[in-house]
Specification:
There is one protein chain. This protein is mainly alpha-helical. It has a domain of about 50 residues. The chain is built from two helices and two strands; from the N terminus they run ααββ. A two-stranded antiparallel ribbon has the order 1-2.
Amino acid sequence: MIRGLEHLSYEDRLRELGLFSLEKRRLRADLRAAASAWRSCERAGEGLVTRAWSDGTRGDGFKLREGRFR
């Protein structure tokens, strides 16, 4: 507890200190972990996934390549 902020609510204390809530910090950590996992998979499976130009269909634009892999 920080002296002088005891009377404030949790949200007000965070705002006063310029901090994010625990929920947002955990979400940010999860997003970083997911991005890190994606990058490591991208390096390990080089060429397995390609970025395709939008063809007018729904989706994210990533396509799996067909071919033989060892």
